[in-house]
Specification:
Elements: E1 2-5, E2 19-23, E3 26-36, E4 44-53, E5 57-66, E6 72-74, E7 89-99, E8 103-108, H1 114-148, E9 150-151, E10 156-157, H2 162-195, H3 203-235, H4 245-253, H5 264-275
Parallel strand pairs: 1-4, 2-4
Antiparallel strand pairs: 2-3, 3-7, 4-5, 5-8, 6-7, 9-10
Helix pairs in contact: 1-2, 1-3, 1-4, 2-3, 3-4, 3-5
């Protein structure tokens, strides 16, 4: 299992401050990463870092480090509103040695590359699906509740009430739209890569594809939040209790928009830049 570590406090994904310094037989890694999901159980930590090359300047590189390596310290400090079981601790690297073969040059530091864009799309597409899955779980739980629960002197099912029917319809509409949008983007991406051999994809075309994906990511993760919120409304006070599954789904789904790439603010900047034909480079 691999733990992907790209996020750092105070910078963006293209400008990591964690650094690899050349030493005899390899590299020394120094820096700190945040949101190290699955770090307690991963066998490898895959990180992005900066390399200062004497002739080629600053470079962006990817590094794989075994979790048991000396100098690798998982801080066990994950304390968040939701996703409490993800183990997304900070990971600190202090003179952590890796061999030469463990470092792969990606691109100039702060610049996009084909491999970087392709990898990010492949990694994040499934993550968007996971948050849609949270919405689906909330939907199924709510349907089961309103079709079986009876209340009041008339012993009517909650599903027989018009306000409940209206809210369930809104949930269905948002689910249908989210499914359609994610399926279209995934199909478009599959078709694109079947027509473009690896290593020869025009960067401008990749940015157009990533722009489309960012639009989908924003809509689906936002709609997932709205779906779970409506499910909580339908459930009444019971869903707000910690013991109820909806309370966990409500906390977890809120993390969707923050998943990189991109956070909401960066996503709007990137989508706008690509649409307007500007160089989509985020400020460090």
């Amino acid at each position: 299992m691999t733990c992907s570590l790209a996020t750092e406090t105070g910078t963006d994904m293209l400008h990591p401050l964690t650094e690899a310094t050349k030493t005899d037989g390899g590299w020394l890694i120094n820096g700190q990463k945040s949101f190290g999901t699955l770090s307690p159980t991963a066998h490898l930590c895959e990180i992005t870092c900066r390399v200062r090359h004497p002739q080629r300047g600053e470079r962006l590189a990817q590094v794989r480090i075994p979790r048991e390596s000396p100098g690798l310290d998982i801080k066990n400090n994950w304390d968040a509103l939701g996703m409490r079981a993800s183990g997304s601790h900070d990971v600190v690297f202090t003179n952590c040695f890796i061999p030469d073969t463990a470092l792969v040059d990606v691109s100039p530091w702060g610049k996009w590359s084909e491999g970087w864009l392709v990898g990010l799309m492949a990694m994040t597409m499934g993550l968007v699906g996971a948050f849609l899955g949270i919405a689906e779980a909330a939907h199924d739980l709510t349907i089961e509740t309103v079709t079986t629960r009876r209340k009041g002197p008339g012993n009517r099912r909650a599903a027989e009430r018009y306000p409940i029917q209206h809210t369930i319809a809104e949930i269905e509409i948002d689910l249908a739209a989210s499914h359609a949008m994610l399926e279209r983007t995934a199909t478009t991406t599959d078709t694109f890569f079947s027509l473009h051999p690896v290593g020869s994809v025009p960067l401008h075309a990749l940015h157009q594809l990533m722009k489309d994906f960012q639009c989908t990511k924003w809509v689906v993760t936002r709609k997932a939040i709205e779906i779970v919120d409506r499910a909580l409304t339908v459930s009444g006070g019971a869903g707000y209790l910690s013991a109820h599954p909806l309370s966990r789904l409500y906390r977890d789904v809120r993390a969707g928009p923050f998943m990189q790439p991109f956070s909401p603010n960066e996503a709007f900047e990137y989508i706008g830049q690509v649409t307007l034909g500007l160089d989509p480079i985020l400020e460090a």
